[in-house]
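re the bet — no i am not wrong, look at it urself. input seq straight from the record:
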Amino acid sequence: MADATPVKTNSRTVGRGAHWIEWLTGGICTLLVAAMIGWISYHAVVSSGGVPQLSVQVLRQQPAPDGGYEVSFIIENKGSRTAASVPVKGDVTDGNTLIETQEITFDYVPAQSAATGTLLFRTDPAAHEFNIRASGYTDP
């Protein structure tokens, strides 16, 4: 039968339990991993379903360097679902007469986030009626 006495190797005793710091570190890491799994699971359950809630606001209108006009905007998705292939359409009108239309498509507008963009016009939007909106989306 083998001897059960601990063996010393490089001033460390083999066969003894781990140091209390190792136990503390392991316990903290276990709690952090469990908390992350719980947080991700909670958001997966709560965020499932829902629809994108898209809104567009003009940030500024200014002359462009090439002689046209730039309309910078922000598109926000306050919903709990990501929207894909989101076209944003801007119309310059004079009464019932459509003067110019420009459109840009965002690949994605994630849930609870925002993105910015700029539409380029030949006609001054500030001199006419201007309407900007998100005109659709697809489910990713």
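see?? The first strand starts at residue 7 and ends at 9. told u. also The mean pLDDT is 89. so pay up
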